[in-house]
C-alpha cells in the first residue's frame, strides 16, 4: 500500500566527483566529509526533512558502498518511514538488458515507477554536492502560485563568475525566457543551483520524450544526451512551457573542486558567512559516530577552529576544521586545514593549507602543504591533498598543489 | 557480539536518588548528565547491548520524565526491537505507594520478568559508572552453577566520605563470606558495583518468598541474611569505575575523565558508550580562545578560556571569560568577562557578563537547573 504524497524528492547522487581526485577514489561525491561532522548529502537530506518532504529517492551509481552504508534506513534524518522515507535507487537489470544511468534525466526516467507509487503532484530534483540550507516547501509554494511547469532555483552570482554556471534569463515576473549553459558573455547573473521543482505530469512527459529522442539519435549515430539542463529544460523552453526562476538568498556553495571544498569548510570559520550549523530550528542531521566528547590537553593551542567529538588535541590548531576521532599530538601544528575522521597528526608534523582524508597518518616531522607567503611564485601555490587511508612517512614533504593517494 | 536471548537485563534507574538530591530534584539517577554528553543510564544500557543483551527492563521510581525523554523507544541503543528491546517499567507497588527496595520492585514487575524467555537476569544500578562486558561474568556464573554472582572491584573506601557503599568479603573459593553496608573503616576493599547475575528460577523463588514475608531489601535479606544458604559468588571487574554518592563525588567523578587513562578505560573503542543523539554542530573555538586539559562536547561555542573543566553539549563561554575546574551541564551560557571556578552549573544556567563565582575543590558551588545569575 502506498498513500499519495504531494511531493517526492529525487536526489542525484551518482556522480563521481572526478575533480575531487584522491578524496573520491573509493567514495561517491555526496559521501565526502564536510564541516567537521557532516557528509555533503546531509544538507539535501536534512533540508528535505526540515521542509516536510518525507519521501526521497537517492540515485546512486559510482562507488556506492560508503554512501549506501551511510544512508542506511535513513533514521538519522528521520527518513525511516513506514510510508515513504529514503530509498537508495541503484541502476538495475531488466528483461531488455541492463544499463547504467546515462545522464541525470535518464536516472530519473529509469525510476519513474518509484515516483508513480506515490502518485505525486510535484517532484523536486536535487543534487548531492552543494552546501546550503533551503526550505523546499517555499519553492513548491512559489511553483504552485505561478502555475509553473518547472521552477528552477537560482542564485545571483558575481558577473565575473557567471560564465562558470548555467545562466537563466528571466522577464520581470521571474519567468524564464532563456537558459544558457556556461555562457562566454552572460546576459544575466542568475545561476542555476541544480534544484528543480517539476509538475510531475509534465516532467514525466518530457522524460519519455527525451528518452525516445536520444535513443533514436543514438541508433542513427548522432550525438545524444539525457540531461536535465541540456535536454529537459531546453525542450520545455522550446515548447513554451511555464518555467520560473526562484531566487534563493543565503549561503550556497558548489563543492565540485578541491579548492571549493577547502573554501566551503573555511567559510564556516568566517563570522561573515551566513551558514549557521547551530540553529535548532533547522538542524543539519548526520549519522553519529558515538564518540566521547573531545579532549583538549595541556599543550594544546586552539584558536578559530571547529572540532568534532572523539578528537584528542594536544598540539596547535588554528583556522582549521577537524572531524571526529582526529588526534593532534603535542608539538604538531595544523593551520588553515581540513582533517577528516580518524586521522592522526604526529608530533612535529606540520599541516598547512591542506586537506587530509580520513584514517590517514601524518608521521613525525612530515610537512603537508605550505602557506602562500612562503611560495615565491604564486602559480606554484595551492591546497595540498592527502587521500583517505594514506600514510605520509616521517620527514616526507607534500608540496602545495600536490595530491597524494598512496603512501609515501 | 551477536544477540544472547538467554539473558534479561534489568536497570534500576532510581536507586540511591536521595544521595545526590541537588541533581535529582528534577530528574532521577539514571538521567543525571555525566561526562559531557551522557546520562548515567547510558553506561548500564551500553554494557548490556555490547554483551549481547537485547531485552532490557528499566525500573523507575519517581521524577522519571527526563528519563523517558532520554530513552524514547530505545533506538539509540539499538533497543527498539520486536524481539526483546527496551521496556519501561513505571513504579507500582502491591503494598501501596511506591515500592521499597529491590525485592519489592521486582515483585511488582514480576509479570514482565516471567514473560521473558531468558534463563538469567543481570541487574544493574545507574550510580556506578563503568564499562564492563558481562559475558565473562555469565560464563563464570554458569561454570560455578551459582545462584547469584556479584560484580565487585577493588577500590579505596573512606567511611567519612563514601555513602551507601556495600563492601564484600569472599573466602578462598570466591564464595561470599561477609557483606557490610557503610562499615566504619577506611582502606582498600572489595566494593560491590551494584551489579549481579541471578539465575531466573532462583530469583523467582527469593522474590516470592520475600513478598510473603514482607521483606524488601535485597542487600539485607538476601546478601546479608541468607549468604550461607545460597551459592553467592564474586566476580572481580578490573576496569575503571566510579560510584556517585554525593554532589562532591559527582564533581570529582566527572573531572576524573580528564585523566586520559581513566577516560580510555571508560570509553573503549570496542565498547562505545551509546547515548541519545543530539545532532549538535562541532565545537566552535573563537579567535582568542584558550583551552587546557578539558573535555568539550559537541555544540559548544567557546570564545574565552577553559581550564580543567567538563563542558556538556551546547555550552557557550563568552569573550574574556575564564572557566576553571568547572562542570557545566548542557546549554549553560557564560557571558563575557566572567570568572567562574569550581562551579557545577545544571542544565540551561545563564551567567551574565562580569560575574565572579567561586566554589572550592571540596565544596563546589552548585547552581540549579535554569538558574539565572
UniProtKB/TrEMBL annotation, chain B:
Similarity comment text for this entry: Belongs to the bacterial/plant glucose-1-phosphate adenylyltransferase family.
NCBIfam families referenced in this protein's UniProt entry, alphabetically: glgD
High-level lineage: Bacteria, Bacillati, Bacillota, Clostridia, Eubacteriales
Gene3D superfamilies, per database record: Hexapeptide repeat proteins (2.160.10.10), Spore Coat Polysaccharide Biosynthesis Protein SpsA, Chain A (3.90.550.10)
The entry's keywords: Glycogen biosynthesis, Nucleotidyltransferase, Transferase
Protein name per the record: Glucose-1-phosphate adenylyltransferase
Domain Glucose-1-phosphate adenylyltransferase/Bifunctional protein GlmU-like C-terminal hexapeptide span(s) in chain numbering: 288-356
SUPFAM superfamilies to which the protein is assigned, alphabetical: Nucleotide-diphospho-sugar transferases, Trimeric LpxA-like enzymes
Ranges where the Nucleotidyl transferase domain occurs: 23-176
A GO term for molecular function: glucose-1-phosphate adenylyltransferase activity
Signal peptide stretch: none
GO biological process terms, semicolon-separated: glycogen biosynthetic process
Species this chain originates from: Ruminococcus flavefaciens
